[in-house]
Amino acid sequence: MRAVVVGGGVAGLVAARDLTAAGHEVVVLEATDRAGGKIRRAQVGGATVDVGAEAMVNRRADGVGLARELGLDVVHPVVASSRVWTRGALRPLPRTLLGWPLDLDGLAASGVLSDEGRERALAPRDVPAGDEIDDDVAVGDLVAARFGDEVVERLTEPLLGGVYAGRARGISTRAAAPVLLDLARGADLPVGDPTVPVFAATRGGMGALVERLADGLDVRTGVTVRSLRRTAAGFEVAGERADAVVLAVPAAPAARLLADLAPGASAELAAVEYASVAVVTLAFAAADVPDAVREASGFLVPPVDGRRIKASTFTSSKWGAAHVGAGDDVVLLRTSVGRLGEERLLQRPDDDLVAASLADLHEAVGLAATPVDALVQRWGGGLPQYPVGHLGRVARVRADVARTPGLAVCGAAYDGVGVAACIASGRAAARDVAP
Q1: Phi then psi for 63, rounded to 5 degrees?
Q2: What are the backbone dihedrals phi and psi of residue 401, each rounded to the nearest 5 degrees, phi first?
Q3: Which CA distances in Å does 434 have to 223, 246, 368, 408, 409?
Q4: Chain centroid to CA 167: how far?
Q5: pLDDT confidence of 131, banded at 50, 70, 90?
């Protein structure tokens, strides 16, 4: 069988690898100048660092398992404590599950909430266990019904904003955090091993994962696929003949390519919204960095506080110098900018985004130094949104696509935006076209 995978992000590369391992001839067509999608490494301050996704969920085997299959070392954060920059101060991040408080005493002591917000959160109300819970509901609405609006504003929003760059009241609980429905019904929290880290990465950065995946594959960059046609013998894609096709591209290009073959799926995918974000990576002389940058893994910023950045990761502290490849004389950190609906902010020049990041870092942690290097990586339309009803949309898309044997879709628009979820999505697509 000859297969064409359209899209060289992690989902597409995994699909191509699995099909190749099964003995099929595979070509990957990637529109940009490199494979990897939203996983990318670049040089900043003499170190090679991730300027896109920097980690994967450790407790899900899809990501760490693949890394080990590829012979890559898996590393975990050295410093895992995070902060919330809210109400004028850096405060400890209380223990939550995607913004659902798990330790009310810790929440009360953190200072994250006002007196009124704390009083409401400490007197949680029962959430209806009938149709309102059985149907889909926005994460923010579910948390607010139980703990109040301020918990959503100062905890749920920044936590989900880091993953989806969306708004908590617009993100589907069933699609993004189904375990919260169980908690709302009164179920016990699944008990995991507290010694097992939540996050992991490949040594030297997540970029090593996609670089290793691409090794040995026929990846052709700079190829924009504008049409997908069914033929008597199979498919024709950008002049390539194929018996099977995997579309591992964002929703909008997938919608265009499916317009004739799967018009129902095309219409569904055309309606998917995306948020644009930017990652600002900064390198500082170690002597210029205050202790606050060394004592935590970073901080989150609730949108209600009106800051310019939405989070900062203290890269050198979080991962350690061995992971990022920086010397002891350089400290690396990064900020992220942009949520759904903030496209105008991201239209500003790189220098403005760097200046905005530095201004917020100065106020948050007292970092007043000039960086020795800086890099702005923009991810236009980088993160698909999962609104209420998302799972129904995905089911309809896949049902329509399945009517054309040998055709499958995968990627962040369907089953999760994280690295591990995209890996699982790519593997499922490979199985779909070559069962």
Answers
A1: -80, -55
A2: -65, -35
A3: 24, 11, 56, 10, 13
A4: 14
A5: very low
302-335: pLDDT as tens digits? 999 999 999 999 999 999 866 677 777 899 999 9
Neighbouring residues of 120: CB distance < 8 A, sequence distance ≥ 6: 147, 148, 149, 150, 151
Cβ–Cβ contacts within 10 Å for residue 427, how many? 18
Q: How far is CA 131 from CA 20, 135, 171, 185, in A?
A: 46, 6, 19, 12
The Cα 142–Cα 146 span in angstroms is 7
User: In 10 A of CB 104, how many CB atoms?
Assistant: 16
- Between vectors from CA 74 to CA 71 and to CA 77, what angle results, nearest 5°? 165
**pTM to 2 decimal places:** 0.95
